[in-house]
Amino acid sequence: MTQAPIISFKGVNKIYSNGTVGLKDISFDIPRGQFLVVVGLSGAGKSTLLRTINRMHEITSGEITIEEEPINDYKGQSLRLLRRKIGMIFQGFNLINRSSVERNVLSGRVSYYPTWKTLCGLFSKADREMAVRSLQRVNLADKLYTRADELSGGQQQRVAIARTLMQDPKIILADEPVASLDPLTTATVMDTLQRLNREDGITVIVNLHSVALARKYADRIIGLRAGQLVYDQPIAAVTEADLNKIYAEGAEA
Amino acid sequence: MTYPEIPRRSWVQRWHVKGIGGTVVLLVLLVASSQMTGVDVGMFFSNFGQFMNLLVRMSHPAWDYTTVIIQPLLETIQMAILGTTIGAAFAIPFAVLSASNLIHSRLLRNVTRLFLDLVRTLPDLLLAAIFVAIFGIGSTAGVVTLAIFSFGMVSKLFYEVIETIDMGPLEALESVGASKVTIIWYAVLPQILNQFISYFLYTLEINVRASTVLGYLGAGGIGVFLQRSLNEFNYSQTAVIILATLVVVLVIDGISNHLRRVLL
């Protein structure tokens, strides 16, 4: 591989203040443009791993570099600029329910403006058009002025993706994005993420519970158990038995 | 035959120690405090006749007095609106600083809360007396008193509302790279606005009633007339003032209910 990885973990440990081990000696690289799926049982550290990438969780030791820059010491403005290029999708969508879809989508753009302009809602015409285009990409442009809580779960998750697109992200982190959706809307959301990965070259990292989904969408699958990296294979080398083992052995412990 | 093994409850659970103990303690405290303060419940009933007598004398409202009190009643409403608005506006930043889910510094939070406790401790009558001395007799003293009184009350109600919000949208805005103030504006405010309005109107209602009392100290409004009628034992006028105040409170309550229905 000639190109430098976009994200790199070097001996990362995370111990929570109550002594629980979140991550244990994690080291691996994520090349630019990869669709990476993280599997593992609940509590294995998948969410923690994801949130260390945009520093929503702090690590205890080790180093994470993004585009070859160590991010551990980012503060204030530099931290906000880091987060700007990393979109995040949540299991619970995390939309502002009482606000319109437009306002939710535009809120993905606020880091491009000084605070006072965001308070007055002074978004440029170009960005308002960008909001419509983002919604078009998730097929929801007609819902622009609908209140977010009037949408179905699948629609809300797509609004959340549109919000992320407003960041113009290089990386998208998705934390169990389909865990509260039915199979049909699951496919829509996963397809959308795949399209962004292929068409825009955005590096996508998704936490999933479903082995079948992982095999369908991933370029590469990594497995976590009790905070440790126990599995790491490109999709061509992944077998059903391997994946079942990640879950089965965890269940025994 | 075999019985399924049922886990044994501890004796604390089995004899409902917490529930029974709590009730006993409460009763003991009630009896003890009524004895120590010398409250005579019997007196309430033996002197009930005087109360009825007062009610009878108030039962012939002097309706022609209504025209006299409309102007001071309007002044009372204006004072209440001004005082509540000023108090609530100042309460918002303090409520944010007191909310444990927004401010992680325990020191800052506790200092703010201590200050708010202090403000709430000051009785509104004391405040009115002070501000009448400073600003002289008139509605300015009343407005300032009501503003401080509302500030103390509203800030506590507000921060308790803030502490119940859904943190998901805040996490999302944080992950976007928004500044703290932007996060509050986009993710907190829409979640709390309705309850803020509801509490604001509740405070307004309280202030309309409170300002009738403040009038006693010369802080303007309908209270001045209430005091005059009571001093003159003119209970038919007192009745009109009370009924008029009731109308204002009912109207505010109606607006509040309507807004809550529309906004929710």
UniProtKB/TrEMBL annotation, chain A:
Transmembrane segments: none annotated. SUPFAM superfamilies: P-loop containing nucleoside triphosphate hydrolases (SSF52540). One of its GO terms (molecular function) is ABC-type phosphonate transporter activity. Residues 7-251 form the ABC transporter domain. Gene3D superfamilies: P-loop containing nucleotide triphosphate hydrolases. One of its GO terms (cellular component) is membrane. InterPro entries: AAA+_ATPase, ABC_transporter-like_ATP-bd, ABC_transporter-like_CS, ABC_transpr_PhnC, MetN_ABC_transporter-like, P-loop_NTPase. Keywords: ATP-binding, Cell membrane, Membrane, Nucleotide-binding, Phosphonate transport, Translocase, Transport. This is Phosphonate ABC transporter ATP-binding protein. It comes from Levilactobacillus suantsaiihabitans. The lineage of its organism: Bacteria, Bacillati, Bacillota, Bacilli, Lactobacillales.
Automatic annotation (TrEMBL), chain B:
The chain crosses the membrane at residues 20-45, 80-104, 125-149, 183-201, 213-230, 236-255. One of its GO terms (cellular component) is plasma membrane. GO terms for molecular function: ABC-type phosphonate transporter activity. It holds the Pfam family BPD_transp_1. It comes from the Bacteria. Residues 73-256 form the ABC transmembrane type-1 domain. Keywords: Cell membrane, Membrane, Transmembrane, Transmembrane helix, Transport. The keyword Transport applies. It is found in: Cell membrane. The keyword Transport applies. It is a multi-pass membrane protein. InterPro entries: MetI-like (IPR000515), MetI-like_sf (IPR035906), PhnE/PtxC (IPR005769). Belongs to the binding-protein-dependent transport system permease family. This is Phosphonate ABC transporter, permease protein PhnE.
